[in-house]
Design goal:
With about 425 residues, this protein is of the alpha/beta class. It has 15 helices and ten strands. The strands form two sheets. The chain has a six-stranded parallel sheet. A four-stranded antiparallel sheet has the order 2-3-1-4, with helices on both faces. Helix 13 crosses helix 14. Homodimer. Its EC number is 1.2.1.70. Belongs to the glutamyl-tRNA reductase family. This is Glutamyl-tRNA reductase.
Amino acid sequence: MSLLVLGINHKTATVDLREKVAFSPQQLRDALSQLKSQQVVQSGVIVSTCNRTEIYCETDHPSPGNVVDWLQQFHNLDSDALLSCLYTYHDQAAAQHLMRVASGLDSLVLGEPQILGQVKQAYAESVDLEAINGPLERLFHKTFTVAKRVRTETDIGGNAVSVAFAACSLARQIFESLETSTALLVGAGETIELVAKHLYEHNCRKIIVANRTRERAKPFADAFGADIISLEEIPEHMHRADIVISSTAAPLPIIGKGMVEKALKARRHQPMLLIDIAVPRDIEEGVGELNDAYLYTVDDLQSIVERNREQRKAAAVKAESIVDEESVGFMTWMRSRDAVDSIKQYRADSEALKDELLSRSLQALANGTDPEKVLKELSNKLTNKLIHAPTQAMQDAARNGDERTLDTLRQSLGLDPQK
């Protein structure tokens, strides 16, 4: 039995091909059912995200050919286009890859935490469809433990490496708790939506969204229980905001020095954090000159992000060593399993031999045979039968000049090393 990983990701394939290879939720269930019913693999899990599609499986064949053919047919793909982007990993390399993926070491953003949840969800789907068992199931359980260890023992996920997350982290550094803070978010694009998500995850529940059109802001504002105002209404609500984060496509500043100055007076000079992540700027540069107004621009955040990326890279070195150690340990367990069946068979054969000879001996005693003679015959026959196979193996190894096998046999039988 061999572990196999086959897949494509953001490093090997274009978005166009990744879209064609991706599995929708329904396709995923159909695919797992096919893998199982058609016996393409013995056990399998499919991880499919916007950045990767990977099949983790146990197979009788070390060659990935059967799985590649199945994937190509399932998605009706051009074989040349697919093959040029595929990568495969076997056994320890497969275990190591899964652990790296779940720990965020193979992600587009180093150390991002979402992938672990996606891997857990993929595993749950396979469990639900009874498509996973044996060593592969053990590997996924081990992987979840490894990912937790990486998060606990390294700082790979502790620093913001996106502008949106950096903005939220900055707010958390300045305000002791975001639970009592009010955030005014200006704009309704992807970055502001991410900012809202991060703020909400850190218990900020008072959010105001200002946008040119209320309709554009409504979907994500509703998701976070945010109030919606127009850009023209910002001056009326500015004093409510402890945190102002702005990211629009406006050609001229939306928030001026005078507007912030009035808001600070109304706030009785309670501090206000303003983060401008727009290019061109949404907030006048002069705002930074005001007492109690702390203005950060996108350049400030980029420097934070870059510094944090370097810190994550340093943490990744330790994380990689953890993954290496754990993948070696898992393969040691895998190899030990290979001996289990042999040990069971050897023990069963020995027990059967003992029972057979004991039965004959008891019958001989019942027939009145001399007990001493019965015991001698039992011990001689048992000894001869038990040593026959290893004796034959040592003779064969000696005749073939196979010193390594001969030494292994001597060691396994507890014999002294040959001089």
